[in-house]
Design brief:
This protein has 46 residues and is α+β, with helices and mostly antiparallel strands. It is built from 1 helix and 2 strands; from the N terminus they run ββα. The chain has a two-stranded antiparallel sheet.
Length: 46
């Protein structure tokens, strides 16, 4: 399974449609969700 968690270090993020969005235009709520999803994923995958 190949999962990519987006981080603040990336200058662009991919939206749900696969389009690149500059990090400064990503809503804070989406950044928080991505961070939480990444931490949960790290706990569950070996």
């Amino acid at each position: 399974m190949n999962v990519t968690i987006q981080t603040q270090k990336q200058s662009t993020w991919l939206d749900a449609d696969g389009n690149e969005v500059p990090f400064k235009f990503v809503p804070k709520s989406d950044r928080v969700k991505e961070k939480l999803a990444g931490s949960l994923l790290k706990r569950r995958l070996p």
